[in-house]
Amino acid sequence: MPLHPVEPETTTDEAAALFTATHRALGVVPNLARVMANSPAVLKGYLGVVTALSAEGSLAADVRESIALLVAQENRSDYCLSVHAFRGTRTAGLSAAEATRARRGQADDPWTAAVLDLAAVVVRDRGTLTDEQLAAARRAGLSDGQIVEVVAHVALHVFTNYLATAARVDVDWPLVRHTD
User: Fold this and answer.
1) Comparing C-alpha atoms, which of 161, 151, 138 is closest to residue 84?
2) Angstrom distance (rounded) from CA 75 to CA 166
3) Residue of 118, 27, 28 whose CA lies nearest to 70
4) What distances in angstroms separate CA 166 from CA 3, 4, 32, 77, 173, one per listed residue?
C-alpha cells in the first residue's frame, strides 16, 4: 500500500503554507511534495535546499537538471526521471537529446561532462571520491564549492528518488521510464 498524499485543498495546518511555498518554487504542487507533507519538516527542508541551490548555487539550471536525470536513471526512479525530463526540456533549456544523454552521464559541453562524471561517481560509489577523481574535477574547472554543490544535488536527488519509490508516488508528469 502506498504512502498517502496530503491534499492541498483539505489541509489547514503548516502543510498549507508549505504547499503555497512549493507552488511558488516549482510552479505546481507535485504528488511527491504531497507525500513529503506527511512530515512538514521534510517538505520544509526539501524546499529550503532546492530554493538555496537554485537561487544561490553556482550551477546553471540545465546542469542541475542533468544531474537529476543521471541520478534518477541510476536509481531507476521513473517518477523522478519523468519530473526532470519535463523540467529539463521545458524550463531548463535541455533538448530531448541532451536530456537522454544526461541520463547516461554524457554532455557535449566538457565542463558539464565533468560535472556528470563527478555526479556519477558520487551516486555509484556512495560519495567515495579518490584523490584522482577530485583532481580531475578541478582540472576540468570545478571549484571546491561547485564540487560540494554537485554532491549536494546528488544527495538531494537520491532522497527524492528513494522517497518516490518507497511511497509508490503516482507519476504526475509525462511518463519516462528508466528502461526507455
Assistant:
1) 161
2) 12
3) 118
4) 8, 11, 11, 10, 18
Query: Which residues in the chain show pLDDT less than 70?
Result: 1
Contact 68, 92 (CB under 8 A): no
Q: Which residues, other chains included, contact 147 with Cβ-Cβ below 8 Å and sequence gap of 6+?
A: 118, 134, 137, 138
Q: What is the pLDDT of residues 98-145, one digit of tens each?
A: 999 999 999 999 999 999 999 999 999 999 999 999 999 999 999 999
pLDDT for the residue numbered 155: 98
CA 37 to chain centre: 18
Report field, pTM of the whole predicted structure over 0.85: yes
DSSP string, 70-126: HHHHHTT-HHHHHHHHHHHHHTS---HHHHHHHHTT--SSHHHHHHHHHHHHHHHTT
Cβ 157 vs Cβ 72: under 8 Å: yes
Q: CA–CA separation, 79 vs 176, rounded Å?
A: 8
Cell numbers at 41, concatenated: 519538516
- The C-alpha cell 584522482 sits at 132
Structural contact between residues 63 and 37, judged by C-beta atoms closer than 8 angstroms: no
* Per-residue model confidence (pLDDT) at position 1: 64
Cell (9 digits) for 22: 512549493
